[in-house]
Amino acid sequence: MLKLRVITAIVLLGLLLAALFLLPSAVWAVLVVVMVWQGAVEWARLSGFVGRKATLYWLLTLSWMLALLWLDADAGAAQQVYVHLAVYLVAALLWLVIVPSWLITGWKVKQPLLMALVGWAVLIPTGLALLDLRAADPSPWMLLFVMCLVWVADISAYFAGRRFGKNKLAPEISPGKTWEGVAGAVFGVSLYVVLVWSFSPHFSHREILPPLLLAAWWWVVLAVIGDLFESAVKRQAGVKDSGALLPGHGGLLDRIDALTSTLPLAALALLMQQLG
């Protein structure tokens, strides 16, 4: 299983890097829309939607995403900023307030409509962040930097947890995750940030390292929250994986769970910096 996971991950990484650096913006936007659509298909399953209700859900999700793209093309710069800000603030409310409370209380959501709303708050900001962060200066390095940070955290947590893991992080939600794994993620991300800061001209100012490390540690927390939340939703739905799209990995949501909680807030931080 591990060999299959590694092979799939390498293939996906190669395809992603090719898309990031070679695709024009319009084609990248189409790819993002397809990813959001696939996420909506999987979320509909986790929410208990079947048949026409599932189809209606992903159609509405596509409509939201296409409406945002249309606004970007038609609206003025100021209008675009405030629309994006509103979307990211919804994501911030979800990941900083609602989801932590959800996980702490062990909330079981039985209302499909509420799950549908949560799905939109997960998927739409993530899709928008994939567009905004890729377009941010330096493009596409900003998006790649944030995504790599999440991947480093995930890989470091996995191996640290397997080697040293004893104290369960959230046994009722995800029994395999440990506090030692989280510590490994913090260590791995710290090393990654120091390496990027040392060799990248975009982070060459010495004074930027402390706030960059603090932000990276906070992003580890967000990644853990995103991972635990998807595990909680899958446990509630009674499934092991969100889908079977990726051999050895499950569905798309199984691969981007930590990105859904980190990319929108990274885009929000970047947007707030520009407004400031």
List keywords for this structure.
276 residues; two-stranded antiparallel ribbon; mainly alpha
In short:
The protein is an all-alpha fold. Helix content is 79%, strand content 3%.
Strand order of the largest sheet: 1-2
The share of residues in helices is over 70%
Radius of gyration: 18 Å
Shape: globular
Low-confidence stretches: none
The sequence of SSEs as H and E is: HHHHHHEEHHH
Number of discrete domains: 1
Structural class: mainly alpha
Query: Approximately what portion of the residues adopt beta-strand conformation?
Result: under 5%
Q: Distance between the terminal alpha carbons, to the nearest Å?
A: 48 Å
Count of helical segments?
Answer: 9
Say how many strands there are: 2
Mean pLDDT: 89
Major beta sheet, specifics?
2 strands, antiparallel
Walk me through this protein's architecture.
Helices cover 79% and strands 3% of the residues. By secondary structure, the protein is an all-alpha fold. The chain has one domain (2-275). β1 (168-170) and β2 (174-178) form a beta hairpin. α8 runs antiparallel to α9.
What topology does this entry show?
Elements: H1 2-22, H2 25-47, H3 51-74, H4 77-105, H5 112-135, H6 141-164, E1 168-170, E2 174-178, H7 179-199, H8 209-237, H9 252-275
Antiparallel strand pairs: 1-2
Helix pairs in contact: 2-3, 2-5, 3-5, 4-5, 4-8, 4-9, 5-6, 5-9, 6-7, 6-8, 6-9, 7-8, 8-9
